[in-house]
UniProtKB/TrEMBL annotation:
Name of the protein in its database record: Trafficking protein particle complex subunit 9
Naturally occurring in which organism (per UniProt): Myotis lucifugus
Domain annotation Trs120/TRAPPC9 third Ig-like: ranges: 899-1013
Upper taxonomic lineage: Eukaryota, Metazoa, Chordata, Craniata, Vertebrata
Ranges in coiled-coil conformation: none
GO CC, one annotated term: TRAPP complex
GO process annotations (BP): cerebral cortex development
Predominant subcellular localization, coarse grouping: Golgi
Lineage top rank: taxon: Eukaryota
Length: 1149
């Protein structure tokens, strides 16, 4: 026997072999349709008996194997079923002749045969025949199974007759010698009458009867016959028949059938029990006991049923235990090994033992049998037989749990499919077998299995297998498979590839993808296996993904409603565990900023190139869901082993809603990959979901000023998009022209402009920034591409005093101004007091330092909106940073006042210092210019009318309601300084630079100076002859009485008076000498003392008198208030009575 049956198992020894073959030309589909129905009748119960017959069907069986039927009866073909097509009666004789020729092949062993004819109808088909069945078609054949059952019953009749015939042979009769084919020549010439020969014949026949009993369903009888055969054959050293079916293997098979009624071949369903007591006996299958206790053959009945219950006990004792089954298998195989021609028998015995050990879960012992099977030397096998042998070895190793060993032999079988000796290599079969080896090497075709945890399996072996898959798929003519497997190799085995291997694999991948690019589509093989896509997530490796907020100038802001934002979504409780737990996951993924429809949005990735060469990544873009998104792909080139490298991917959301960034896509080495963030191991992510709001306009600003090199850093953390700078002198004003351009696609409908001066130690006077928004809003709505203009006035007015708190005393400094010129002839050059400064002055030194340049910083904020975003309540915020470097222009080093000739006026004396490096001219309203050279100081005298500060409001502005008394006083003082400064109108001009500005005295005037510049609450008016006499000299004639009236107006909130006034005349000799002795020159008409009654608030009182001048000349009248209790309660400044200048002239004739 040269063709082994690798599907053999121990229970096959009790089966009858039936061959089912086609006769003539029968389509494969039709044949196997009937063959499957025939195979469904695999066992039947014998009528009037507890026995069961088991049938084994084969559609192909080598005739030479049939010659071993005497050695093992289950190898003998006892039934033949043929299937044929016959459409006409004239073809019937030829068809029937072919049936007879087919029977002749197995004729020596056949018990019975059947012919199934399909398609023949008519007279022939209607003739009743036992061995032929006619059916009109393959679809209309309902009685096939019943025919097969009848056929098996006929086989049983023949089998039972043969068993009875053999079992009833008497010892005196001559027993024929049963032998295997290769033994016939060895027995020629032997003495047939010797006792040794007769025992051999009896032993072999006893074994043969045991086989027939086993096939006939008589397990008890077979065990007895096998034990008897063992004793007979052991005595004559007939090792072949002793090891094989005779004793040991037959005994093992019967014991296996007893212990494992479900079978060992892995067939579906358990075999039908042999007798009702078998399941109970099976519970004792592991009970050790005597294994060779023989039962008297005379106790056996002809039908195999012993009414004595002791027979069941005998069967259990004659059955081998599970442990002894394996020992007997070993012994039998050792006997087979003594015969070169019994290699197939030995191999099949090893396979049967392995299947039994697999059920017993004794893997190590099973592996020893398989190892022995590997080294059994058969005849020269064909390539197909080698493939079958290695495949079966692989399946058996899989059966006992040796997965890697199973994969090894499966791979050997795959390589055998494409051996050089094969004219047409079977690459498809090779590929299919290689796929089946993957689980044994801890490989799967899903890259997700390699993304988590440590690597499983031997990487070197796995890489070799993947290379073989790539090569096999290429030879199959399927480049898409080659690309998929090579991508899988590169993705999963990257950490185990050497630098040279990385280069080789990528070069091969580029070569394959040039013909067939790699895609993310699922590849389905013809056998139904699906290859999932392989995204190259390691080329490059992504470590961090961060969704970026829009630039500060483009970030949308939500307009605050009266009730606040999202009031309904908030809980009234400080902490709610329900909200915390239910929304925790959502909060962790959703980001607290928004993107805007139609605007470019960015996602930053930190990537790493693990390759030892430059990695070119093409078509890298974002994968999103939720809204329509236009991804703008990028191409990048990463240096070898680059380390973490930032990459920014951009795109534009086209609709509104909630967008989720799921991952990114790349094209590397011609392979297109969709890499999902959820599948990336060890990635850091700040969230992947963001809200997209409706579109908003985009505003771009440009100015007439140059950009600043300094960036403003507001304390609030706001970002400033544009910075401009300008250099001005203190008091200078410059216009800033801002162009507002709508560079978006939505109309700009709303605009608000605010300004904020950053925290500064310098005190600003007046409006630093001012504009008229109405001029710009007149051009709205601003359509895309249109430009509007906004003019902003920059006015810097810092403190013009030289030092803080320097002027605390208004006493004369020795520089006097005589007469009424506007400026004194005194001129002095002032140097900065270097010695007064610290050795290391800190930045931002004293404000009075003349050489110090001060910096003012402010932010212009533009809030604008329009389009759909405005409807939803969103706006944008654009900031312009302004840096103004203020150089000092002039300083007022000292201020003082002198009384003027009129009590309603006074002289303001200002010492002015030119701190610039240029010649500077200074002018006040209505006065001549004062020229100051660089570093020069001069005094400037300005005659001003006194101010009525009482008319100012007590609480300027609404903020005064909440201000402290100190703040209210400061506000009143600022208002007074502003009023004085507006009346003075002091301006400077630098002709060489053509620059002008204002010089403010707001920060120079202290409280004492303000008091001198303020009108007294008591207004005194002196009238001469009914005319006010304050500045000009009043004329009168000598000898004529001059009427004098003193009038008091009470502007204070209290009642004052009564007062007593004395008029004292004197003459000024212009040399500092005043002459009060004028009794002979001036005479009073009446008393020289005037009396005023009490005056109520806002009231008025007057007193009258008269003087008579006796001589011509210039006279002065000094009106003095008596110092009494009433006058002492009021401040002296309230009693500023004017001096009266009277010029006495000669009387006209």
């Amino acid at each position: 026997m040269s063709v082994p049956d690798y599907m053999q198992c121990a229970e096959d020894h009790q089966t009858l072999l039936v061959v089912v073959q086609p006769v003539g030309v029968v389509s494969e589909e039709n044949f196997f349709r009937i063959y499957k129905r025939i195979c469904s009748v695999s066992q039947i119960s014998v009528r009037d008996s507890q026995r069961v017959l088991y049938i084994r069907y084969r559609h192909h069986y080598p005739p030479e194997n049939n010659e071993w039927g005497d050695f093992q009866t289950h190898r003998k073909v006892v039934g033949l079923v043929t299937i044929t097509d016959c459409c006409s009666a004239k073809d019937w004789p030829q068809t029937f002749e072919k049936f007879h020729m087919q029977k002749e092949i197995y004729g020596s062993t056949l018990y019975d045969s059947r012919l199934f004819v399909f398609g023949l109808q008519g007279e022939i088909a209607e003739q009743p025949r036992t061995d032929v069945a006619f059916y009109p078609s393959y679809e209309a054949c309902p009685g096939v199974e019943k025919r097969i059952e009848d056929f098996i019953e006929s086989l049983f009749i023949v089998l039972e007759s043969k068993r009875l015939d053999r079992a009833t042979d008497k010892s005196g009769d001559k027993v024929p010698l049963l032998c295997v084919p290769f033994e016939k020549k060895d027995f020629v010439g032997l003495d047939t009458d010797s006792r040794h020969y007769k025992k051999r014949c009896q032993g072999r026949m006893r074994k043969h009867v045991g086989d027939l009993c086993l096939q006939a369903g008589m397990l008890q009888d077979s065990l007895v016959h096998y034990h008897m055969a063992v004793e007979l054959l052991r005595a004559v050293n007939d090792f072949l028949w002793l090891g094989g079916p005779a004793a040991l293997e037959g005994l093992c098979s019967a014991s296996v059938i007893y212990h494992y009624p479900g079978g060992t071949g892995g067939k579906n369903g358990a075999r039908r029990c042999q007798g009702g007591s078998l399941p109970a006996e099976a519970t004792n299958r592991h009970r050790p006991g005597a294994q060779e206790v023989l039962i008297d053959p005379g106790a056996l009945t002809t039908n195999g049923i012993n009414p004595d219950t002791s027979a069941e006990i005998g069967r259990a004792k004659n059955c081998l235990s599970p442990e002894d089954i394996i020992e007997k298998y070993k012994e039998a195989i050792s006997y087979y090994g003594k015969y070169k021609n019994a290699g197939v028998i030995e191999l099949e015995a090893c396979v049967k033992a392995v299947r039994v050990l697999a059920i017993q879960k004794r893997s190590m012992e099973a592996s020893e049998f398989l190892q022995n099977a590997v080294y059994i030397n058969l005849r020269q096998l064909s390539e197909e037989e080698k493939i079958q042998r290695y495949s079966v070895l692989s399946e058996l190793y899989e059966l006992i749990g040796f997965r890697r060993k199973s994969a090894f032999f499966k791979r050997v079988a795959a390589m055998q499919c494409v051996a050089p000796s094969i004219a047409e290599p079977g690459w498809r079969a090779c590929y299919k077998l290689l796929l089946e080896t993957l689980p044994g090497y801890s490989l799967s075709l899903d890259p997700q299995d390699f993304s988590k945890g440590t690597h499983r399996g031997w990487a070197a072996v796995q890489m070799r297998l993947l290379h073989e898959l790539v090569y096999a798929s290429r030879r199959m003519g399927n480049p898409a498979l080659s690309v998929r497997h090579l991508s899988f190799l590169l993705q999963t085995m990257l950490d185990f590839l050497s630098d040279q291997e990385k280069k080789d694999v990528t070069q091969s991948l580029e070569s394959y993808t040039s013909k067939c690019p790699g895609t993310m589509e699922l590849i389905t093989l013809p056998d139904g296996l699906s290859l999932p896509p392989v995204p190259l997530t390691k080329l490059p490796i992504v470590r961090h993904v961060k969704l970026l907020n829009l630039p500060a100038s483009l970030r949308p802001q939500k307009m605050k409603s009266l009730l606040g934002q999202n009031v309904s979504a908030k809980s009234p409780f400080i902490y709610s565990p329900i909200i915390a737990h239910s929304r925790g996951e959502e909060r962790s993924k959703k980001i607290d900023f928004q993107w805007v429809q139609g605007d470019v949005c960015e996602v930053q990735l930190m990537v790493y190139n693990p390759m030892p060469f430059e990695l070119r990544v093409e078509n890298m873009g974002l994968l999103t869901s939720g809204v329509e998104f236009e991804s703008l792909p990028a191409a990048l080139s990463l240096p070898a082993e680059s380390g973490l490298y930032p990459v920014t991917l951009v795109g534009v959301p086209q609709t509104t809603g909630t967008i989720s960034v799921n991952g990114y896509h790349t094209t590397v080495f011609g392979v297109f990959s969709d890499c999902l963030l959820d599948n990336l191991p060890g990635i850091k992510n700040n969230g992947s979901t963001v809200e997209v709001i409706p579109a908003l306009p985009r505003l771009q600003i440009s100015t007439s000023l140059p950009r600043s090199a300094h960036s403003l850093q507001p304390a609030s953390g706001d970002e400033v998009s544009t910075h401009v700078s300008v250099q001005l002198f203190n008091g200078e004003t410059q216009q800033l022209v801002i162009k507002l351009e709508n560079i978006g696609v939505e109309p700009l409908e709303k605009l608000e402009v605010t300004s904020k001066v950053l925290t500064s130690k310098e005190k600003l006077y007046g409006d630093f920034l001012s504009w008229k928004l109405e001029e710009a809003l007149a051009q709205f709505p601003l359509q895309p591409g249109q430009v509007a203009t906004l003019t902003v006035n920059i006015q810097v007015k810092l403190d013009f005093s030289c030092q803080e708190n320097l002027l605390q005393d208004l006493s004369d400094d020795g520089i006097s101004v005589s007469g009424f010129p506007l400026c004194s002839p005194f001129r002095q050059v002032v140097r900065p007091r270097v010695e007064s400064k610290a050795s290391n002055p800190p930045e931002g030194s004293k404000p009075g330092d003349p050489s110090h340049t001060k910096v003012l910083e402010a932010i212009l904020n533009f809030k604008y909106s329009g389009g759909p975003g405005h409807v939803e309540g969103y706006y944008r915020d654009l900031s312009l940073g302004l840096r103004v470097e203020v150089e000092p222009s002039v300083f007022f080093t000292r201020v003082s006042t002198l009384p003027a000739t009129s009590t309603r006026q006074c002289h303001l004396l200002l010492d002015v210092f030119n701190s610039t490096e240029h010649e500077l001219s200074l002018s006040a309203r209505g006065n001549e210019e004062l020229i100051l050279h660089a570093g020069e100081c001069q005094r400037m005298a300005i005659q001003v009318d006194k101010f009525n500060f009482e008319s100012f409001p007590e609480s300027p502005g609404e903020k005064g309601q909440f201000a402290s008394p100190k703040q209210l006083e400061e506000q009143r003082q600022e208002a007074r300084g502003l009023e004085i400064n507006s009346k003075l109108g002091i301006r400077w001009r630098i002709p060489s630079l053509k620059r002008t500005g204002e010089a403010s005295v707001e920060g120079v005037l202290n409280q004492l100076a303000l008091e001198h510049l303020q009108l007294a609450p008591l207004q005194w008016d002196v009238l001469v002859d009914g005319q006010p006499c304050d500045c000009e000299a009043a004329a009168c004639q000598v000898g004529d009485p001059m009427r004098l009236e003193v009038r008091l107006t009470n502007r204070s909130p209290r009642s004052v008076g009564p007062f007593a006034l004395t008029v004292v005349p004197f003459q000024d000799h212009q040399n500092g000498v005043h002459n009060y002795d004028l009794h002979s020159a001036v005479s009073f008409v009446g008393s020289s003392t005037f009396y005023l009654d009490a005056v109520q608030p806002a009231g008025q009182s007057a007193c009258l008198g008269a003087l008579l001048f006796l001589y011509t000349g210039d006279f002065f009248l000094h009106v003095r208030v008596h110092e009494d209790s009433t006058s002492k309660e009021l401040p002296p400044s309230w009693f500023c009575l004017p001096s009266v200048h009277v010029r006495a002239l000669e009387g006209q004739a």
